[in-house]
Amino acid sequence: LGVVGSAIEIGVIVAAFLLGISDLVRLAASGTTHVALRLRGTRGRATGTDTRTDLGTGTHTGTHTDTGAGTVMVAPAVPQASRREFVSRLVAGSALAAGASTAAYGAIFGRHDYTIEEVVVRIPGLPRALEGYTLVQLSDVHFGQYIGEREIAAASSLVKDARPDMVVLTGDLVDHDIRYAPLLGAFARRLGQHARDGVVSVPGNHDHYAGLGEVHDVLRAAGARVLMNEGLIIGEPKAGLALLGVDDLWGARRSRGLGPNLDQAIASVPRDLPRVLLCHNPAFFPEAAGRVALQLSGHTHGGQVNFLVRLADMVLPFGYVAGRYDRQGSELWVNRGFGTAGPPLRVGAPPEVTRVVLVSA
After folding, report:
1. Cβ contacts of 348 within 8 Å, gap of 6 or more
2. By 3-state DSSP, what share of the chain in percent is helix, strand and coil, each rounded to 5?
3. What's the CA gap between 233 and 242, in Å, rounded?
4. CA 280, CA 294: separation in Å to the nearest integer?
5. I need a surface site. Which of 46, 284, 303, 324 has the fewest CB within 10 A?
6. Which residues have C-beta within 8 Å of that of residue 322, sequence separation ≥ 6?
7. Pairing relationship of beta strands 352-360 and 330-334 according to DSSP bridges
8. Is the pLDDT of residue 50 over 90?
9. Is the torsion defined by CA of 167, 172, 178, 183 positive or negative?
């Protein structure tokens, strides 16, 4: 019922958007028509021809021609009101059909149209022993009313196909209700079976909403490693890779002492190792750029519902919405997420598993 209601709501929004565009176009066209009619009426009086136009409807009521001997009435033009009414109904019907079909696709197919994105990232100083090391990233699973066993099975299959050395989870794993945390535990255990070096996680804002302590307890009980402003070493201590993880930006709003602290994370590992950072919100990238080789983030859902335009490009900080970005010699990858938040549908932003292959620069 929730999926149907959300689909109807999005369908109405899309239809209203299209009708708004139609009204603007019609208004502009109407203004142009009125100007043209005034100019034509002026020319008619100059040549002795009186063209009478009903500006209320935009239709000609007839033409009077002065012949000198009298006035000859010319038959009035065919009224255009019925044609305009037909066009208006056609436009409204088309907008409703487009809205309904878009919402139905997003709810039934779009939110399950899973893709694996493969990204090759060059890491300066990456040891030869870690050449080709593969991180498989999932983000924004949002376990809750609309995410459950079906999504666990799909994600597990995709991760297995991606052949990870390590699975990394970049936050928003539970939507807002901690009662769904056991699903997260089962999820982490299944993912760990497919990764030689296990599962590593950082928190997102929704994990704070649900209850950060409980979310982390479930992850740890499932064998996952949780990074809160700290790091770990992949490979040898003096010839490895530093994987860092920081708290979400929302943490600083929730409690003093929380929030991302990159300095603390860097200090927890040898400083001369190349660094990869896990951080839920890509808006942290300007602070991390130049200090890490790569940041993996989520949070944006790739806009989640992108009809004709991707509005997220205009409203999200720095325009970090989906895919690869560069800044100060560092790279950022923004994962579109695996689940949904708000309306359980996706349009133009398919759910994603990212396969990140690390190679030496």
Report:
1. 302, 303, 305, 306, 307, 310
2. 40, 25, 30
3. 5
4. 13
5. 46
6. 300, 302, 303, 334, 335, 336, 349
7. unpaired
8. no
9. negative
